[in-house]
Amino acid sequence: MKNELKVYRAKHDLTQEDLAKAVGVTRQTINALEAERYDPSLELAFKLAIYFDCSIEDIFSYDSN
Questions:
Q1: pLDDT value of position 63
Q2: Where are the beta strands (DSSP E) in the chain?
Q3: pLDDT of the chain, 65 residues: tens digit per residue
Q4: What domains can you pick out in the chain, each with its CATH number?
Q5: Fewer CB near the last or first residue (10 Å), C or N of the chain?
Q6: How far apart are CA 9 and CA 17, in angstroms?
Q7: Which Pfam families does UniProt cross-reference here (predicted)?
Q8: Distance CA 37, CA 54 (A)
């Protein structure tokens, strides 16, 4: 799954730690998401979209490869 999480985090001038605390995960989880080594749970995807006031599809897109 491709994502724009790093872009959204940068636009809001947040560290990985700041974002992790805001959505209730570890900094390592945010790092793994940004590196596209981990796909978020549906709950986490919603939390991130709500935090950034956008849709899930704005942050995440499906990549069949």
A1: 80
A2: 2-3, 60-61
A3: 999 999 999 999 999 999 999 999 999 999 999 999 999 999 999 999 999 999 999 999 988 76
A4: 2-56 (1.10.260.40)
A5: C
A6: 11
A7: HTH_3
A8: 23
Give the separation between CA 28 and CA 25, rounded to whole angstroms.
8
Q: What is the pTM of this model?
A: 0.93
> Which pLDDT belongs to residue 18?
98
**Terminal C-alpha separation, the chain:** 9
DSSP assignment of 19-45 equals HHHHHTS-HHHHHHHHTTSSPPPHHHH
Residue located via tokens 């990985």: 16
Residue closest to 51 by CA, chosen among 7, 8, 1:
8
Structure tokens at 45: 């995807």
Q: Is the distance from CB of 45 to CB of 60 less than 8 angstroms?
A: yes
